[in-house]
Write a structure and sequence with these properties.
35% helix; globular; 14 helices; alpha/beta; six-stranded mixed sheet
Length: 393
């Protein structure tokens, strides 16, 4: 098959719409549903990310995409009891396979942004990960293969309309890519740079010179995630998963703040006071996620006010005070941070430090590199200049 007609493009008024290939056949097969234009953009970008994560780390990987940027990305490390609880998979009866753990991490890091996502899996979709997917609001999934049991579970989702795409893992695109804007064709070499090269972390201008093996792994995850994130972008990673992604901001510091705030929310969700919120039985997953997000924020009165709290809780919880939040966030450590281009000022490092960042990989090359290095030294942060820019548009 060389082409596939679509219902419409990015918006319903954009017709006709299709995907096609000029040489050979399309490397994808739609096993269920009817994916749309944006679905395929998410699917093909997210597939590249998880494929590269697996190649770099040797671990299976998953990504959760929304509007052509990742909301989460992770490798298949086991889940602690705390992570199982905050990702709401502690009640799953079947054992969680590595690919299921990867998906739980990718989806669970930023559940608000992942609502209605498109999922990518680096390995065969098994019954365990399909069971997790079926419980969530999602548009579709792309993977190199599916077990029969997993396929049946997914085909039952969304009244049989859930989008399931199988991709040929051996497909290699042409080295030159093109796109059009306003009737003009752009052409460039594909971004084939490999981000698992240890040499990326050898130029260390800071006083602290040590990257642990885990830090190098997490920095690779950050850089690979950024390679498929709309620029400007910054990514915080801990224990094999992205915990905060800031995408598409015009200012670097706004990326750092946005991603840092998401990383703080991820960490705050592990605070005992948040984990033990007395939710009413039968509350919908999306309502629970939104309630947690508001409870953690400065707008907590929106869910704790008299006449409101009983919509969510069986009893009124105490607020999580600003002092309690600050004290809990201060306990987060060993966070890795990647940036898709250089940090222009030390204010980015100041903000990163507040979210537990101890390791940084960024391109370097700012006229204020000295200020950035000085700020890292102030907090004992180890930073590498990779010399690699990772803009993606």
């Amino acid at each position: 098959m060389k082409e596939l007609a679509l219902k419409y493009g990015c918006n319903p008024n954009q017709k006709p719409s299709r995907i096609f290939i000029t040489e050979g056949g399309l490397p994808i097969e739609v096993l269920n549903g009817r994916p749309g234009y944006i679905n395929f953009l998410d699917a093909l970008n997210s597939w590249q990310l998880v494929k590269e994560l697996k190649e770099a780390t040797g671990l299976c990987a998953a990504a959760s995409f929304k509007h052509v940027s990742p909301a989460g990305a992770a490798v298949g490390l086991p889940l602690s009891d705390t992570l199982k609880k905050i990702y709401f998979v502690d009640d799953v009866k079947i054992p969680l396979s590595p690919i299921a753990c990867a998906y739980a991490r990718a989806r669970g890091a930023d559940r608000m942004s992942s609502y209605g996502d498109f999922i990518a899996l680096s390995d065969t979709c098994d019954a365990a990960v399909a069971t997790l997917i079926k419980r969530e609001v999602s548009d579709g999934v792309i993977a190199p293969d599916y077990t029969e049991e997993a396929l049946q579970i997914l085909r039952d989702k969304r009244k049989g309309t859930y989008n399931v795409i199988k991709i040929d893992p051996n497909y290699t695109p042409a080295p030159i890519e093109t796109k059009q804007c306003f009737g003009i064709t752009f052409e460039q070499g594909r971004n084939e740079i490999k981000l698992n090269d240890p040499a990326l972390f050898e130029n260390i201008p800071t006083k602290s010179k040590t990257f642990s093996d885990e830090a190098k792994r997490d920095l690779m995850i950050a850089l690979i995630t950024l390679k498929y994130t709309q620029s400007n972008s910054v990514c915080y990673v801990k224990d094999g998963q992205a915990i905060g992604i800031g995408a598409g901001q015009q200012s670097r510091i706004h990326c750092t703040r946005l991603a840092g705030n998401k990383a703080d929310i991820w960490w705050l969700r592990q605070c005992p006071k948040v984990m033990n919120l007395p939710f009413k039985e039968g509350i919908r997953r999306a309502d629970r996620d939104n309630t947690i997000d508001v409870y953690i924020s400065d707008d907590y009165e929106d869910v704790l006010a008299d006449g409101v709290w009983h919509n969510f809780f069986s009893e009124k919880p105490e607020p999580l005070t600003r002092e309690e939040k600050k004290a809990w966030i201060a306990q987060n450590t060993k966070v890795a941070l990647g940036s898709d281009a250089f940090f222009p000022f030390g204010d980015n490092i100041e903000r990163a430090h507040k979210s537990g960042v101890e390791f940084i990989a960024q391109a370097g090359g700012s006229v204020r590199d000295d200020n950035v290095i000085e700020t890292c030294d102030k907090y004992g942060i180890t930073m590498a200049f990779t010399g690699v820019r990772l803009f993606h548009h």
